[in-house]
């Protein structure tokens, strides 16, 4: 599906008037325009839609401005080599209902690849960008087991554990989804550029990052998109498995999100055995599952 194809807006109430056609291109332009407003954050935008749960982005933005922003987005993406992509919009098409479990759910996301992978059972495998050799081996073993159990391996395309998770799934003929913290056509880390292209071409690559806002602000502000990427990754999956992570790791953002969203959160036993870590016990007390053997995962997932 491309952004130029009209969709029909969904209505929960069967007594409502006939559904209305919407333009994905105008909606993505309107959503981008919302992000250009002063002080816009995931929280402020989510609050705006929470106050009007049936609203579409175009309900808040003039058609002229929405169309102008849409043209700018298309030009930016094309300039970054993105000729084919799709969008998913809340209230229309195949927007995943499970994303509404996020604390500040997104209204629009971009993707490249096979969208139908989002409908398979997925488990996120995440962890530090600088894992130990043992951590890498554990990530490989878990990803291999997930492929054998026909789960889709989901991760964030970062260095370290994320990369091991994606590449193991691909090498074994499994499925993988990458949820990135940059717009489509941007590559971070740069050494994963070819991996990102392969996932976009053969699997599924998802970005929730607004293209225009990202292009107009500096690196420190754009880093804030990465924690929100973890929140969306958790909402998209059945569970999150943390392989290796330090006391202040950004991975813990996903741990908090998983529990908030009612997803399973698995923490490997090796992390409980580290004396320098307090977070595994803290999250276990809040409902996380300690994984001593792989069967602990399968029993919980059912």
UniProtKB/TrEMBL annotation:
Q: Which SUPFAM superfamilies match?
A: MCP/YpsA-like
Q: Tell me where on the tree of life, at the top rank, the source sits.
A: Bacteria
Transmembrane regions: none
One Pfam family of this protein, by short name? Answer: DNA_processg_A
Domain (Smf/DprA SLOG) ranges: 91-301
The biological process GO terms on file are: DNA-mediated transformation
User: Where does the signal peptide begin and end?
Assistant: none
Full protein name: DNA-processing protein DprA
